[in-house]
Protein: Zn(2)-C6 fungal-type domain-containing protein
Amino acid sequence: MPSYPIRRRPRECKTCLPCRASKVRCDRKVPCGNCTKRKFTCSYGRPLSSKTPLPTAVTTASSTPSQPLNFVSPTIPPHARSASIDGSYTTDHPTGTSADPDLPDNIDISQAEWDEINTKMVAMQQIIGSLHSLFQAHSTRKPPNPEPVQQKAPAPSEDVYGSNVLKTGRVHFGSRSALVDILEKSKRSEDTAQALPQDDLLAELALGNVSVAYPFVDLWSSDPYTFNIAGVCGVLPEDSQCLEFLAFYRDIGSVLYPVLSDIPRLEQQTKQLLENRRRAGGVYKADANGLVKPFGMDLAFLSLLFAVLASGCQLSSIPESDRELTSWIYVSCAYQCLRMLNYVSQPTIEVIQILLIISNVLSYNMNAGASYTLLGMTERMCLVLGLHVETTGFTAAEQETRRRVWWTMAFQNSHFSLAYDRPSITMVSQPEIPFDSKSMPGHRSYFETLCRIVSLALEVLRSRMYPESSQLRIHEIREYKQQIQRMLGEATPHLRFRDKCHSLAEHIERTELRLHSSYLLSVLCRVSLDPHAHLDEQRRALIREDCIGSLINTIDAFVELHEINSHCSRSWISLQRSIASAFLLVANDDSFQTWQLIDRLETVLADHVYADDGNHNNRTDSAKHLSSSLRALREIRESFSARKNPATGLAYSPPVLPSPPPALTCPHWHRLIPVRRQ
Structure:
């Protein structure tokens, strides 16, 4: 019977490798005291072969490729590792059991497997070393003869952080926002740099906050856990003024921003509340059963009524200082009712409608930052209710209301996203557009056409998410332009032709649709104003012509909106888009037609700034905010006043606007001013 050699299991190596090689006592810590004192790399594991030198540092990717890798771990204690004579690697757990009950206590690796792992790791180390050498060679090597085009081409525009009026922080703007295009133009042209404002461009574009005051402060108590419903009801105006503000909202506010679809029902409920208040003697009395129903109406309706009154107040004919303060108080009352409803934990469709109207009111008061913040919370409430998807289980009327609320939210959100060039959740998923059952091409309503324009804007924002499509190509711009023309061509006749409009609402809808569609087309064609865009001169000239024409149409539509009714031009979205278009236009086009249009826009802004009197100290925050835009446009006009009109060869001298200018506000707001024909 042959005898086999007895293979003895070696004793466990309880010391670290450096102490074992130096033959000194090891305290068996990780790292041990000797390695810490001598700055050695303390490691435990199988002792190295006598032919292999002891490493003094951790092996990196830049080491010699021929050097074998040593698989040691400084975190495993010495009593948990052992190695056999034939090179098989085993791991023993101190408790005698493995971490996984399905695995054995000892894991053995054969010598062949161990050699294969070592071979692969050495090959991987060689590849990493080659890549490291290649990167070093490219980073230190300079191009021998750079091309002249590369030397002259400036860096592409990047994101910026604009300072706000209140100096409370930096506001992020994407590289495709109008502010970045204006700044890039000022850097490329010395004349334009001297003319365009540089210190506070965020204020000139009406994208900052004019007040740090919290718009939702409790006016009756400092305790956040108390609600003074009697104090809120006491703020309700008299019947005549309440109906007047409601009429302004019905005829102008709901047309400019159509959040509510059933305005007659709102009027009926308002009259019912006023009637109940007269019966109660004009004073709120708590219900005997403990229910909080002020004057027999729900808290949700009371909050909605205050939001509507705040919007109607901004569009009314009362003095400007009273408009701003009164609307601020109504917003606070509406928010107090929402707090009593616990609206954050229990959002409803009506709550979202209230928040959308409040956000729009904050924009009117030139607090774009606060409005954008509130709109972000409202947007997430829409996601909680599932308004961004088509959901079954609702009636046709409820489904239409859900879709309408979502698209009105998307209208505000898309404008903020285009203005700041920031991504939005609304561009990821959208429900169907709430078309009427009798809607057809050629008879699309204003809201349906506006939703189609917003849908196209969301598609453009969605395409910007992909790095390979950072700039629109010529065929994409042409396709988007054709879609806009098709949408406008399928609208109802009064949205396409001025002579088909027979009411104030129809004139507002036609002008607003022209303004928003023109602005979106200018955003699409703005790539032609970027010198870094990959466009040949012929195509750049064609797209630039469309861009300049769209900017002109945007401003002209806003001026026409003011001529129709001066209250309509207080819409913040229309106002901000017109001001941004004006700065882009004067930075890229120095024609006689441009300066005539800028003069007309200055007249509109001056009418809002000097609405009450010319005393700067008595102006409201909104008037002061617009005065900065007006002052900037006047400074730009003065810097370019020496330019000659190419048609006549004479210097263009713009008219001098008085301070305050003659008021353009119609004393009878409900009567339509005759429209100027072009």
Residues 206-385 form one domain. The two ends are 118 Å apart (CA to CA).
